[in-house]
Amino acid sequence: MDLSLSDVQQALLDTVRQFAIREVKPLAAALDREHRFPAELVARMAELGLMGIEVPEAYDGADLDPIAYVLAMEEVSAACASTGVIMSVNNSLVCDPLLKFATEAQKQQWLRPLARGEKLGCFMLSEPNAGSDAAAQKTRAIKDGDGYVIQGVKNWITNGPQADTGILFTMTEPEKGNHGITAFIVDMHGEGVTRGPKDDKLGIRASHSCQIFFTDHRVSADQVLGEPGKGFKVAMSTLDCGRIGIAAQALGIARAAFEAAAEYAGDRQTFGKRIIDHQAIGFMLADMLMEIDAARLLTLRAAWMKSRKLNHTRESAMAKLFASETANKVAKNALQIFGGNGYVTEYPAERHFRDAKITEIYEGTSEIQRLVIAASLLKSRK
Ligand code: CAA
After folding, report:
1. Which of 306, 354, 370, 377 has its CB surrounded by the most CB atoms within 10 Å?
2. 261: closest CA among 332, 176, 172?
3. Is the distance from the beta carbon of residue 364 to the nearest atom of ligand 1 less than 6 Å?
4. pTM for the full model?
């Protein structure tokens, strides 16, 4: 694995870093305080090609690779973790499964506007009683003529309140367990699709999520994504990609928390010297820096494997697990370095602390990542 960036990756990194510092970071605290969806930043990300980073030009994407995606996700998330996840859902949970599983006609119809960022996507797997146990789907798609009728409820759907297009997982043949799950591409403005109030969350407050209700929602057979009964594999393979995005988001949060704490520790004086010169604080910062670097290397490795089309289920889980636990540890210690100032909203430490938590929960909890890694020990991998 070559750790140097190509000219194209470096150019993307420079562009996204400027965008993140100049346009995203100045808004982050207010977006969080006001729980406001950053529509203007999403529009700018669309202009910069960040909503379909790995989608080929033929489908109106930026035609870049998974490493470029990680670089961009870290930068945007370091500035605003909410904006980061809006971007990651569109890229890795919606464009990615369409690229992998959609027919040519489906790509033309659904993928192109998502990759241009004209439409926003969401991923509807979780249900009130199917979170970690993703195969326990209760949403039903019942065959009706040449299409299906869908009934059910989806939970905690990131981008749900704004989404135009959704990837939906349903049970078509319950007696077959995970082999009875079918994925669909859904028009979120269609009849029989309604959205609940947005969730009131601890962190990433500018990224909205909600319940989605399906009541007699009709879809045609050409909205099936992949094959009927193969939806669980669509979901799992999508999460292999999504977990790289969340690892990069966690990395961004960790870096932002670290940089704020390091700057503060260089200014703040106690007992006649800067607090960074107290070994207790200096060592904390040293550990943070090392762990962030380790998380970045794991994340880049997973992205590199994806770019080589190698199985990266285990590597994505490792990257997501390590980066999210690092983000939480770093954000907690950064807040501690800020002391009383860390506990008030005048400084960013408390926001990073709140934002970090979700990275240990969504796209598979830390416990699920450990399960995936342990299960990979027993499987032959290609
Ligand atoms: N790729 C392709 N196929 C896979 C796969 C992968 N990575 N992982 C498993 N499969 C296949 C298996 O090969 C198996 O196939 P067969 O039945 O044909 O042998 C099938 O799927 C079932 O596999 P398991 O027996 O391992 O499945 P399980 O029911 O025990 O569950 C699990 C596995 C890993 C726990 C899974 O349920 C899981 O990942 N749970 C977490 C769900 C999750 O991450 N949800 C996040 C929601 S999205 C979100 O959070 C978005 C957001 O807001 C930002």
Report:
1. 306
2. 332
3. yes
4. 0.97
The chain-wide mean pLDDT, for the chain, equals 97
What pLDDT score does 95 carry?
Answer: 98
Tell me the two tokens of residue 359: 């990275």
pLDDT in tens, 305-344: 999 999 999 999 999 999 999 999 999 999 999 999 999 9
Domains annotated for the chain, with CATH where assigned, are 7-119 (1.10.540.10), 122-229 (2.40.110.10), 232-380 (1.20.140.10)
Give Cβ neighbours of residue 320 (< 8 Å, ≥ 6 apart).
243, 244, 246, 247, 250, 359, 363, 364, 369
Cα(140) to centroid(ligand 1), Å: 19
Q: Is 74 among the residues known to form the active site? A: no
Nearest to 257 by CA among 282, 285, 298: 285
E strands, 7-163, where? 121-124, 140-144, 147-158
User: Does the beta carbon of 360 sit less than 6 angstroms from any atom of ligand 1?
Assistant: no
